[in-house]
Amino acid sequence: MTHTESLLAAEEAEVADTQASAPPSHIHGQTIRAATGIYAGLVFVLIPLAHLAVPESHGLHASDYLVTLLGKILCYAAVAVALDLVWGYTGILSLGHGVFFALGGYAFGMYLMRGIGLDGSYHSHLPDFMVFLDWKELPWYWLGTGHILWAVFLVVAVPGLLALVFGYFAFRSRIKGVYFSIITQAMTVAFMLLFFRNETGFGGNNGFTDFKRILGCSITAPGTRIVLFALSGALLLGTLYLARRLTASKFGRILTAIRDAESRLMFIGYNPLYYKLFIWTLSAVICAVAGALYVPQVGIINPGEMSPSNSIEMVVWVAVGGRGTLIGPVVGAFLVNLAKSWFTVSFPEYWLFFLGAVFVIVTLLLPHGVVGLFKKIKTLTKGGAS
Prior knowledge:
Blueprint: H1 3-21, H2 25-52, H3 64-87, H4 97-114, H5 128-132, H6 148-172, H7 177-196, E1 208-209, E2 213-214, E3 217-218, H8 222-247, H9 250-267, H10 272-298, E4 300-301, H11 308-321, H12 327-346, H13 351-365, H14 369-385
Antiparallel strand pairs: 1-4, 2-3
């Protein structure tokens, strides 16, 4: 038996031992189905009914603010899962996912700006900021953005192509670790500075806002708000399903092998380049779709979404929840953003200090995040009971 065959046999034995020690799959499947049912009931039934059918004076009414806040966090949670596929499972720490999120938002924001029509401040078919800057016609890259199908194509294609090209050259050059994190952060800063310029045709520092309608419907109508909320919930559910299928497959095991022992993986005949490139591009596209759903709910998109701090916040969501898991990033996104919502209202000047403290505490005391802490407590409880 050759050395390579010995390594493969050892890996198969490790997988067999892991499967033997795993809990019964049907129990795990029942837990997932139950959690999915509860989630679907809340997102697609209870909250829409509480918003549309319950009077505003009633205590069970879901307010506009609550629906918008939860819809926004659902988008953030999808981003966190997408980032976890790259960082938690593949070991690639990206500090530039805010770019993909913002590009998806801008691509769909172009459609929303075209939908304003003559209802803008200047009553022109051109967006208000173009009239203010004395532009006479739409730039070539705005052509077709009045059609939602073209806008959806741009949401997927532009960030996906950027990720594909950037990732190919970075991974082919075997840039990894802190160096990869630095160049993704540099990419974020470069795009932010580019979009701040009025000459680029994206609204400068004000970005896009004052949206009126989507598919002919008022963007502030309760029904529209609920549809966008439900789509955000569906995106998160679909992202979790896809991520689970990927990570539970042979492809997922190769991703974790890239994270833990890339040199050994290459030694036994795998080329990590295309695995990393696929998961990197997929993660970018998921972030872009989340950004496209985020913009009509919050009503604005500007270069601030590309700021380095936003990309770092995304990393914090994953770290707080627990990277290398699927539910952890969702938990982290909800915990951090609910805390942010409260802090920025009650103690706005202390929010960044709180965020920094959370990241330090998690790094030092909870390396596996909140989910890892619960797993540890569960293990200790079982050990004490036995």
